[in-house]
Design brief:
Its EC number is 1.3.5.4. Its cofactor is FAD. It comes from Nocardiopsis algeriensis. This is Fumarate reductase flavoprotein subunit. Keywords: FAD, Flavoprotein, Oxidoreductase. This protein is α/β, with parallel strands linked by helices. About 35% of the residues lie in helices and about 20% in strands. The chain has helices at about 25-35, 50, 70, 80-90, 95-115, 145-160, 210-215, 235-240, 270-275, 295-300, 315-320, 325-330, 340-350, 350-370, 445-470, and strands at about 20, 40-45, 60-65, 120-125, 135-140, 160-165, 170-175, 180-185, 190-195, 200, 225, 245-250, 255-260, 275-280, 310-315, 335-340, 385-400, 400-405, 410, 420-425. Strand 1 (about 20), helix 1 (about 25-35) and strand 2 form a beta-alpha-beta unit. It folds into 2 domains: about 20-250 and about 400-470, FAD/NAD(P)-binding domain; about 255-395, Succinate dehydrogenase/fumarate reductase flavoprotein, catalytic domain (Flavocytochrome C3, Chain A, domain 1, Alpha-Beta Complex). Helix 1 (about 25-35) runs parallel beside helix 6, helix 1 packs parallel to helix 15 and helix 5 (about 95-115) crosses helix 15. The chain has a 6-stranded mixed β-sheet with strand order 6-2-1-10-20-19, covered by helices on one side. Strands 11, 13, 14, 15, 16 and 17 form a 6-stranded mixed β-sheet that branches. It is built from 15 helices and 20 strands.
Length: about 475
Amino acid sequence: MAPPHSSSDPSSDDAVDLVVAGAGGGLAGALRAADAGLDVVVIEAGETFRRGNNTSMSTAMIPGAGTRWQAEAGLEDSPAAFLADVRAKTRGQADAVLAEALTDFSSELVTWLADGLDLPIELAADISYPGHSVARCHTVPSRTGAELLDHLVARARAHPRIDFLVPARLVGARTHEGRVCAAVAEYPDGTREEIPARALLLATNGYGADSDAVRELMPEIAGAVYHGGENSRGDALRIGRELGAATGYLDAYQGHAALARSAGTLVGWATIMHGGVLVNTEGRRFGDETVGYSEYAAMLAAQPGSEGWIVHDERVHELCTAFGDYRDTVEQGAVVSAEDAAALAERCGLPADALADTLARAAEHAVRGSTDEFGRGNWEAPLRAPYRAVRVEPALFHTQGGLVVDGRARVLREDATPIEGLYASGGAAIGISGHGAGGYLAGNGLLPALGLAVLAADHCQERLLAHRIS
């Protein structure tokens, strides 16, 4: 193996055009590059990645502003409106360059996924997510990341210009005269292979599986369940830093307050946005649930026992069956039902008087359309008996900080100059969620995962073409 910063020549004939580390959202970049005529190698650490990474564990919500699906639904939207929502949700903390680049690219991304990759895209017009001023989340029929990833994997496996190394973990990268020249892969038996490469896309997610880093950087969620890919251990951060990359927003993350405690499945925040409430073990609500599922995770973690119950009804239940994750939760027996508040309190082990009072107060606000003492004014409809409920606990889904990148996904040094040939996407890069958990908008995981991967592929293709012409 060559030593770090070896004299390997990235322009040599045996160099692959692009190495993609991570077979999640990074596959969108692999496919984009391969369709442009580049030769691609995908390195993936987990043999079960089709069900074990954050893309597969998502609800496949991809925001796009000003798409044809929105137009068909009679909805007006624009990148400017999307950017305004990002700025509002993050209180102006989101990286300005990246936020503008991704919101501008969002419509093109969704369109390319549908037209270029034949992904069965549809607009999730039936659900309003916190912070989005208009329905702009596009998804697949099952609303599961598993369907999204299966489609990307099938396309990539069939592409003649894409090769896979699985299982293999990216452990390093080499540069020559400031340019990426090789990627270093390690196999389960400990052997390593250096792959000559003209470019490297770090798409290995963040560091949510590194409990020590989570405790240091985001202590308020450190005690929550980690519900993400087991290989999200900060590999991209380490490799990028070794090459002189800058990092940012390392305290940012996506939490979730709707993980079914008994089943480990995602209940989904649609239960809340369609009119449900979240109560603690004392049968009381403790905030405005509609501010967002990410920031509500830490709020739930601070409650007695770090658990609660999402209470909804038959109307909400039927609406939520559109989500594959919710159906899985029901099939696992995690959702209980009861004819009235007293019976529900007994089934859930909650104080009957407190729960009845909570549900009565919520229903009154919903009927009146009024704002409650927590500031919640979004009530789709009052809850009515018979009720349903599911015991939930807070979870950390993925981190939202990482290597600093520009609007083309190029990894930047501390002086803001790009490391030539090095790109990052998804959790490996800074996102557009600002600091902490409160700036997370639905889709803030997949938009940087897919969008930055595609932008990286486009820039890589342009760069290599320019070198060849020159």
